[in-house]
Amino acid sequence: MDTLRVQFGIILAGCLVASTSFAGPFDLYGAGPRGSAMGAQSASSGDAWSIYYNVAGLADSTPGFSIGGFATHNNAQILLKARPGGYEIPDIEGARYGTPSGEEPNARRDTDDIAPIYALQFSGVTSLGIERLRLGFIAHLPTTELLVLKTHFADERERLSSNQLQFELIDGQSRRFAAEAGLAYRATDWLSVGIGGTFLTGANVGTDVFVRDPTDQSNTDINADVTTENRWGLLAGVQVALPLNLRLGLSYRGPVSFRIQGENEILVSGAAGTETQRIDWTPKYSPSSFNLGASWEIGAFEIAADARWIRWSEYRDTQSQRPEFSDVLSSRLGLEYDTSDESRLRLGLGWDPSPVPDQTGRTNYVDNSRFLASIGSSHDLLVAGLGLEWSWFLQFQFLMERETDKVALDTHPECAPGVSEICDEVPDSAINPQTGLAYPEAQGLQTGNPGFPGYVSGGWIGALGMEVRF
């Protein structure tokens, strides 16, 4: 009974931790050493990490706890093509149509220095004293950056910020704390059901800004009003045991996001009334998905396969815009071989097609289709009379090289909301008030878009993890 109380206390603490979490890096690297090594877990999983793949699989797990380490290496790159001359933003005397080329805060540059991720990972399962019931949690805790909230523009506006391109789905989206909790019940000998959730916070932000002197905006008074709100991402699943050692699994993951919304009310000394500036950012977003999986045990082997339909069409970028991404079907194939009564070898393959269409126009959403290969194993150990399971995995994801060229048009529209083509930041119709004629420097296309005239993305990312379960 004392052990049960300790288990319940730790699991409850894990569930409370989940109530302050964000969608995690599990979408990219997998969850747990078995899942990260094999990939296909919708019908095969049977430990705490089942919560991510199919929460119903939690019903077959053994009560206990685990702690592990996780690290990544990122060799993904975005290499910008050289800009031809004649497209610079001119410095027109007496008129300002955007910041002239050469006066940006940062020089245009490649993206080839993505930092690694280091994290601790935890999981736990308890039965609460009920044979067919399991309650569990999983957590991913970065050791350096608990949560990175960074926004960027996908078009020419990014020139005045970083002046480089960002990977839309494989970098910033994975830099966060993550936790999930679930409850599963084996209703019959052949049917298990489960439900769980990822609970996260959003934020509503309001500021009152008083500018005493418009020519000296360093002397500004600011008040802030920040409130958080609660959001849930639903997890649900079923697993069915069939004759001939076959299992089927079906699961659903609801969308989860961290969104910041609000207003800045700006009052300038001597001005009548205030100006309102809207804030709407979504630094983190994971779309909803449906997983269908099957597993087959034959002798010392288990073969598992998963298909996952991911609704990227509902995705919001960091500026809360909905780009025209496509829903995709990703796939995983896994193998586990019992090399002995105490050891298991695991192999996995996977394919993740990119939901991002060719970026031949104004936007620069950078993403690549990925091929995954992974290996791992687990070993039952007896240390000082305590039974342990030590597991590890090594995973590589190869980004299929993608070359992007902006489409050359005879005419280019002015930059404005809703324009999808490469746009002209200095309109041809700009008139010199002294001469009444159009500025010669404004003729043709002037753009500071960091992705113009094109770029190449590719490379690889890797992950290594170890875990001890007791």
TrEMBL record:
GO cellular component, one term: cell outer membrane
Membrane topology value: Multi-pass membrane protein
Annotated compartments: Cell outer membrane
Principal location class: membrane
Pfam families per UniProt: Toluene_X
InterPro entries: OMPP1/FadL/TodX
Keyword S-adenosyl-L-methionine on entry: no
Keyword Transmembrane: yes
Keywords: Cell outer membrane, Membrane, Signal, Transmembrane, Transmembrane beta strand
GO molecular function per UniProt: long-chain fatty acid transporting porin activity
Assigned protein family: Belongs to the OmpP1/FadL family.
Protein known as: Long-chain fatty acid transport protein
